[in-house]
Design goal:
Helix content is 46%, strand content 13%. The chain is α/β, with parallel strands linked by helices. It has two domains: 161 residues, Rossmann fold (3-Layer(aba) Sandwich); 117 residues, Orthogonal Bundle (N-(1-d-carboxylethyl)-l-norvaline Dehydrogenase, domain 2). The strands form two sheets. A six-stranded parallel beta sheet has the order 3-2-1-4-5-6, sandwiched between helices. A three-stranded mixed beta sheet has the order 7-8-9. Strand 2, helix 2 and strand 3 form a beta-alpha-beta unit. Helix 8 packs across helix 11 and helix 11 runs antiparallel to helix 12. It is globular and about 60 Å long.
C-alpha cells in the first residue's frame, strides 16, 4: 500500500472517451497489494476474473500467483488492456503516482475504481487525471479491515457513472457483501464523504475500547469485569469484544495498522475543518495514534493506541 516506483512516466495525449465494454471475463488490474489489496485481488482471482497485480515491493504481490493472479513488474504492465483498474494504495498521492506510471498501458474507456481512502482534498486531482487519460472514474472506498477483506465481505461505497456499473458488478461482488451507490459523479467525492463519516465512528470506538482497558489497568480493575458489566446491554458490541480480545491476548496482528489509522484520522479532521466542523475527538485520536507509532507500534493493529495511555 505504498506509492510505488516514482520514476516519471510519459503522459499520453488526451484520449477520446469511450464506453466501457462488458466482457465475458472482466480483466482487473489491482495496484497495491497490502493487507487489503492482496485480499481483494485473491477474491477477484477466485471469482474467475482475469487479475493482474502490482506492488512497489514485488515480494508482497508474488504470493497471489498461487491464486491465479499474474504478477506484473510495473503498473503499465499490470493495466495493459484491463477493463478495470483498481487502486488500493496508502493515500491519494500514492494512487496518483501509480496511475501516472501506468499511463503507457492504460486503455481509453477503462474504469478506474479508486478504493484507497484518499480523503476529500485528493478527489479533484484524481478525477482530473482520469479525464486526462480517458478513464471512467469511480470513487469507491471500502468499509472493512483484514478479515472482511479476506472473506469477500467488504462494503463498497461507490459514486460514478451509471453506465459503468455492469462492468464493476463482478468486481465489487467478488470483494464485497454489498455495494452502496451514493451518486453518479465520482469527482464529487460523495462516497469518500460517507467513508470518512463511517471511519470517524470506527476510530472513536477503537480508542474508546483502548482507553477503557487502559483505565482498568491503571485503576487495578480486571478488564473482564468491565466486559461482564456491559455484556448484553446497549453498550455491548461485537467490535468492543474483538478489540478487547486483542488487547487482553496481546495479539496486535494488524487488521488495520496504527499508521493507516492515523492517516485516516487526519483526513477526517481535515474534512471536518473544511466543512466548519470541529472534530475534537478525532483530532485527539490522531494524536494517540501518533504517540503509539512513536512508541514502536506503527505496524501493529490500530487498537495498539492502548499503549498511548502509558509512557512506555
Amino acid at each position: 500500500m505504498s506509492p510505488g516506483d516514482r520514476r516519471p512516466a510519459r503522459r499520453p495525449a488526451a484520449r477520446r472517451r469511450e464506453e466501457p465494454p462488458v466482457a465475458d471475463t472482466t480483466s482487473v488490474a489491482v495496484l497495491g497489494t497490502g493487507i487489503m489489496g492482496a485480499a481483494m485481488a485473491r477474491n477477484l482471482a477466485r471469482a474467475g476474473l482475469d487479475v493482474r497485480v502490482w506492488n512497489r515491493t514485488r515480494a508482497k504481490a508474488e504470493p497471489l500467483a498461487a491464486d491465479g493472479a499474474t504478477v506484473a513488474d510495473s503498473p503499465a504492465e499490470a493495466v495493459r488492456d484491463a477493463d478495470v483498474v483498481l487502486t488500493m494504495l496508502y493515500d491519494g498521492p500514492a494512487a496518483l503516482d501509480a496511475v501516472r506510471e501506468a499511463a503507457p498501458g492504460l486503455r481509453a474507456g477503462a474504469v478506474w475504481a479508486q478504493c484507497s481512502t484518499a480523503g476529500l482534498a485528493a478527489q479533484p486531482a484524481l478525477a482530473a487525471l482520469a479525464d486526462e487519460y480517458g478513464l471512467r472514474y469511480v470513487d469507491a472506498p471500502v468499509l472493512g479491515t483484514r478479515k472482511p477483506a479476506e472473506d469477500g465481505q467488504l462494503v463498497v461505497l461507490a459514486a460514478g457513472p451509471a453506465d459503468v456499473r455492469p462492468v464493476l458488478a463482478p468486481v465489487f461482488d467478488a470483494v464485497g457483501s454489498r455495494t452502496t451507490w451514493v451518486g453518479e459523479d465520482g469527482a464529487s467525492g460523495a462516497a469518500t464523504r460517507l467513508k470518512l463519516v463511517c471511519n470517524s465512528w470506527v476510530l472513536a470506538v477503537t480508542h474508546g475500547t483502548a482507553e477503557a482497558l487502559s483505565l482498568a489497568r491503571g485503576l487495578g480493575v480486571d478488564a473482564r469485569a468491565f466486559l461482564d458489566a456491559v455484556s448484553g446491554g446497549a453498550l455491548d458490541m461485537g467490535y468492543l469484544r474483538a478489540k478487547s480480545a486483542a488487547i487482553l491476548s496481546a495479539d496486535y496482528t494488524p487488521s488495520f495498522t496504527v499508521t493507516n489509522a492515523e492517516k485516516d484520522a487526519r483526513l477526517i479532521v481535515a474534512a471536518g475543518r473544511e466543512a466548519g466542523v470541529a472534530l475534537d475527538v478525532a483530532a485527539a485520536g490522531a494524536e494517540r495514534f501518533r504517540r503509539a507509532a512513536a512508541q514502536g507500534h506503527a505496524d501493529q493493529d490500530m487498537v495498539a493506541s492502548y499503549f498511548a495511555s502509558f509512557e512506555d
